[in-house]
């Protein structure tokens, strides 16, 4: 996957992350793109807003995409390295590639995905890093809850 397309698609996930932050939630956004490059679904972490511990950004984007005959060739774009739960979703449904905005503040399962044949591109995007660092500093209790540390 080329960097230009990956960064353009990351912009969609960033809009979602900013929206989640504005709603008082965890600023993680995601988007699922089809093999043809069309946007299938987008979502944000809504654990706080909806009181649903399974409402991670990647799962919300996946749900918004609706039922697909196959996920071969699709790309999950996420502002933050996917946790084990979301990495499992990628593997379970055969999503072909994952674009990660940043993995400095949290290193999820993207290495494991790569080891199992999923193409992974980590962009190390400055806005993604800054947004998460600021959030972690300002809301450490919510961050720890989100990553399962408390």
Please describe what this structure looks like.
Helices cover 47% and strands 15% of the residues. The chain has seven helices and five strands, in the order αββααβαβαβαα. 42% of the residues are buried. It is an alpha/beta fold. The chain is globular. The longest helix is centred in the first third of the chain and has 20 residues, at 3-22. A five-stranded mixed sheet has the order 2-1-3-4-5.
Give the integer mean of the pLDDT values: 96
Topology as a string of helices (H) and strands (E) = HEEHHEHEHEHH
- Fraction of residues in helices? 40-55%
Q: Tally the helices: what do you get?
A: 7
| Cross-sheet strand order for the largest sheet | 2-1-3-4-5
Biggest sheet record: 5 strands, mixed
Name the beta content range.
15-25%
Structural class: alpha/beta
In total, how many beta strands? Answer: 5
Low-pLDDT sequence parts? none
Rg to the nearest angstrom? 14 Å
The global form is globular
The CA-CA distance between the termini, in Å, is: 37 Å
Annotation keywords:
150 residues; alpha/beta; 7 helices; 47% helix; globular
How would you briefly describe this protein structure?
By secondary structure, the protein is an alpha/beta fold. It contains 7 helices and 5 strands; from the N terminus they run H-E-E-H-H-E-H-E-H-E-H-H.
